[in-house]
Amino acid sequence: MHITFVKKILADGTPCRKCHxxxxxxxxxxxxxxxxxxxxxxxxxxxxxxMRLAKELNxxxxxxxxxxxxxxxxxxxxxxxxxxxxxxxxxxxVEGS
Length: 97
Known about the structure:
By secondary structure, the protein is of the alpha+beta class. The chain contains three helices and four strands. The chain has helices spanning about 15-30, 50-55, 80-90, and strands at about 1-10, 35-40, 65-70, 70-75. Strands 2-1-3-4 form a four-stranded mixed β-sheet, with helices on both faces. The longest helix is centred in the N-terminal third of the chain and has 12 residues, at about 15-30. The radius of gyration is 14 Å and the shape is globular.
């Protein structure tokens, strides 16, 4: 499984506030180490990695996550859904739970 986190830089050069919030939630939740790559969708550069991914996958808003496993590619635009379906499902079961 390969997970890419796509975050946006706005046209004025500032980071997307929601993207920053999601990045902090990943870090606080202990999930950051599960992210394999970060792609920046820079509104000033239509050829930036994140902008190309958004176009290729027909995603309109950032942040989003691209999860590739084998031949399957899934896109998550909702953080909590991504955590539940990917990160928590991937975590090993804790003994005694």
